[in-house]
Amino acid sequence: MTSTVPNAIEHAAQQQPPITMFGPDFPYAYDDFLAHPAGLGQVPATEHGTEVAVVGGGLSGIVAAYELMKMGLRPVVYEADRIGGRLRTVGFDGCDPSLTAEMGAMRFPPSSTALQHYIDLVGLRTRAFPNPLAEATPSTVVDLKGESHYAETLDDLPQVYRDVADAWARCLEEGADFSDMNRALRERDVPRIREIWSRLVEKLDNQTFYGFLCDSPAFKSFRHREIFGQVGFGTGGWDTDFPNSILEILRVVYTEADDHHRGIVGGSQQLPLRLWEREPQKIVHWPLGTSLRSLHPGGEPRPAVTRLNRTAGNRITVTDADGDIRTYRAAVFTAQSWMLLSKIACDDSLFPIDHWTAIERTHYMESSKLFVPVDRPFWLDKAVDDSGNPTGRDVMSMTLTDRMTRGTYLLDDGPDRPAVICLSYTWCDDSLKWLPLSANERMEVMLKSLGEIYPKVDIRKHIIGNPVTVSWENEPYFMGAFKANLPGHYRYQRRLFTHFMQDRLPADKRGIFLAGDDISWTAGWAEGAVQTALNAVWGVMHHLGGETDPANPGPGDLYEEIAPVELPED
Fold first, then answer.
1. Under 8 Å CB-to-CB from 234, ≥6 apart: which residues?
2. What percentage of residues in the chain have a pLDDT greater than 90?
């Protein structure tokens, strides 16, 4: 088991094909599309060199720009802050540069196969991430209601935790056909996936995560529901997700997105930065040695976009923070969608009114983190009892608690090297509790909470630098950590995800394409950023008269076969 409350069930058929984030809403094989030697498609030679605006230099924007460049187009990337978006890796002032903190995305499931394509492409390495009770985690402490339990495996915890794990497994099996869907996703059985999911979407779109638990006989115990919310599964407590749509949670567990996580050695922000610098060997129109960096004067993206509007000829006109005005035949918008409501002045004519409604209804979750650098991974020291006798336990562990810190992660690069502690990783209401506090004030509260769990451990004496922190809801170009649909939001998400299929839109509503993880069905996961970027690339290619190779049909070519379930509006 790799989680405190495991991902549903130990699969009886471990020899089945590996799972991917292949569906269930849009079961298209993005990993096969990327791996095919025919490439992602081509545009007419008359379009070579055509400029395409790409708003946002996060992973989705950089992937879209990179693939458009390979087709012979000229992406013009606009970025308000820094390349990377929520792939943000920072250092600690005055400390070894190898010490880094992942302020945004820090753990990636093996089922993110399209993401892995780009990780491999740029030569990055990954290693197991120390989640609760994961194989890479020496020990875990679960501290609830003032009572702490030390564990190296699930079996080390009291029976009630195993009861909760069993309840979650039964709940998923009885209420969401877990085994059948997991098997269909592994086998890429599209008809079966669509059959199961169509029924569940209609049945569960209006249901909260908490309501789904309450409706299950397996979770008739409030105590079990409370423990499940505080400890959760995979990455820790999920009570902050209880108000969200159960469909959001099912997408995670079906695809094992919350299990077997890997971290990127050296930091996740390297991925978009390396793609920005990369000179592809297979490229159309541009000479070898061309990169996104080389196509931008000074090697830097254009500054923040301040205005988007339609102009004559159904063009997209972009004004940036320098006052520069440029007009494009196509644009890809990858920033968080709320930017279109606040930071960027927009024409109503950019999108159909139903799409504006979907953008306005997008529900973002808050998230906060705080990291400190320490002299060494002291948590691996062995504890002694009051008589000085060794206990065989680590002095400190990966910690899940109902105290203010909620989740504490211990990150090291070897026993004799400086290390990093994520003192606290919290979401939603737990994140908002930190919002008024400075980094040092946050650290003091966190050290107090952890001191109550580990009274014999002096964490402070090991700290070698100032803390770094983030509250994504307070970041001016994000205003939240990631999208999470509320009950009844399925129709909104479908409008945003399918926006790249523009033949069905009026002619005066085409040419700008939405992408980014909040447009995907798997918001909060980098895989969703990659998949929607590839949808947008197909959309731009099609908009400019291009096409894919018949041997490698793109997501738009197969759309009618795999389109997301459409619920009635009336």
1. 2, 3, 7, 131, 132, 258, 259, 261
2. 91
**Distances in whole angstroms, Cα of residue 365 to Cα of each of 431, 478, 514, 529:** 9, 11, 20, 17
Residues sharing a CB contact under 8 Å with residue 191, sequence separation 6 or more, in sequence order: none
In 231-379, which ranges are E strands?
Answer: 262-264, 305-311, 315-320, 325-328, 331-333, 345-346, 364-365, 367-374
The token pair at 138 is 């020496």
- Indicate the DSSP class of residue 463: B
**Contact status, residue 531 vs residue 539, Cβ threshold 8 Å:** no
Neighbours of 340 (CB within 10 A): 21
Spatial distance between the Cα atoms of 220 and 41, rounded to a whole number of angstroms: 53
Would residue 256 be called left, alpha or beta, if left means φ above 0 and alpha means ψ between -120 and 50 degrees? left
Q: Give residue 231's pLDDT.
A: 86
Cβ contact 100:420 at 8 Å = yes
Does an H or E element contain 78, and which? strand 74-78
Tokens of 177: 């056909």
Q: How far apart are CA 303 and CA 56, in angstroms?
A: 10
Which residue from 328, 323, 324 is spatially nearest to 309, judged by alpha carbons? Answer: 328
Query: Is pLDDT above 60 for 349?
Result: yes
Task: Please provide the DSSP assignment of 391-431 as one string.
Answer: EEEESS-EEEESSTT-EEEEE-S-TTS-EEEEEEEEEHHHH
Q: Which tens digit of pLDDT belongs to each residue from 520-545? A: 999 999 999 999 999 999 999 999 99
* 176-184: long-range contacts, CB 8 A cutoff, minimum separation 24: 176/200, 176/204, 176/246, 176/250, 178/8, 178/9, 178/253, 178/254, 179/9, 181/24, 181/254, 182/8, 182/11, 182/19, 182/254, 183/13, 183/16
| Cβ-contact 82, 88 below 8 angstroms | yes
SS3 7: coil
Report the length, in residues, of the chain: 570
Nearest Cα to Cα of residue 428 among 483, 478, 359: 483
Instruction: Report the C-alpha gap between 500 and 344 in whole angstroms.
Output: 21
pLDDT 10s digits, 144-167: 999 999 999 989 999 999 999 999
Judged on CB neighbours under 10 Å (0-12, 13-18, 19+), 570 is exposed
Give the number of C-alpha atoms closer than 13 A to the C-alpha of residue 488, restricted to the C-beta side.
3
For the stretch 68-80, pLDDT in tens is: 999 999 999 999 9
Q: Looking at residue 18, what DSSP letter applies?
A: P
SS3 445: helix
Q: How big is the CA angle at 450 (ends 444 and 453), to the nearest 5 degrees?
A: 150
pLDDT digits (tens, 9 = 90+) for 496-523: 999 999 999 999 999 999 999 999 999 9
